[in-house]
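B., you asked whether I could sanity-check this one before it goes into the benchmark set. Here's the sequence:
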Amino acid sequence: MFDRITDSGLMRRVKQHVIGKEHVFFASVQPGFEKTISNELHSFGLNVSDEIIEGGVEFTGALDDCFAACIRSRTASRILMRIASFRAHEFFELERAIRTFPWELYLNPEVPVRFSITSRKSMIYHTGKLQEIFEKEIPAAFTLRNDSSIESEEEQRQTLFIRNFRDICTVSIDASGESLYKRGVRQLTGAAPIRETLAALILLEAGITEYDMLLDPMCGSGTFSIEAASIFSGTHPNAERLFPFMNWPSFKERNYLYLKTKLMEKENFPGLNGKSIITSDVDHDAVKLAAANIPDNFKGVISPETADFFSLTPEILSGRKALIVLNPPYGKRIKEKDILSFYRDIGIKLKTDFNNCGYAVIAPGAEAEQALSLDYSRKIAFMNGGIKAAVLFREA
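And here's what the prediction gave me:
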């Protein structure tokens, strides 16, 4: 986009104020896993803030750091760039701030602008009024669209996220677009599927890279196994996506392609570098679903099989250091009267036959957790499909 700017004055300003400066970015995450995403972004060499923010973390860096994070992050739901902060105690001061802000440095006049607005503990509390103010004061050169019928593709829209809290209106622009859990890999889903980003969070929090094997014995649609294969092989999860930042005035396609090429050179595939994955489910239909979801580059390393978890024996591990990850059925997938005995049996099985393994087990509620009766080193509570749940972690 930068190379298509014909106004030399605008080009200089974009280069000076956007390309040539560091910015603050926000990576949103499943609440409860803020430390996990912080560790992931630190592993990329990013300057991550130590401040704990519910539902995400901030990091500072150049535009390339943002682009690389969008390509590489397995755990972020979305990545935003902070672009402005306005006082919003009175209508007139907010209107003036919006009117005088250099939107042309950040917004593409050829792409519709949409809004996502929240407001809490502020004098201007009505989100509809806030949107009305922004629509009125943002220059007419930018097209404002609030319906999805014109253009449904995320890369053909630019969204401003506006958070009004205690009369401070923070404005961010969407860098990553459609939720990053949509890898473009899993095409079919079973009952209550786990999101790819949540699966990656659980695997990374469990220390998956320290193990020789992943055992995924209630695989469902295969998400844990696919994410583990991606981690073991060093595959970048979002490398083939199109992102809204490609429409920013500051975007230089040549620089981006060079960055992407350098990142792709660091991928370790083919193979899992000596690691292995055992994928199974008692439900034959789930196994077929998982097999259909496996991307072509992982078909040789993930082979879902029909097997009952309670029939597995320690010999399946071949003496290797293994992590067991379990997202057992719950909610509508299992009769309420059977759920506690089912979870009790899971706990007994783990303690009896797989006591030397590490594990990450999802427990839907305190009663299920109590029924499991498992020792664990830490627990992360979260919401999964509207149900209060927790993951119990133990290292091998």
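One thing to flag: Residues 148-152 have pLDDT under 50 and may be disordered. Otherwise nothing jumped out at me.
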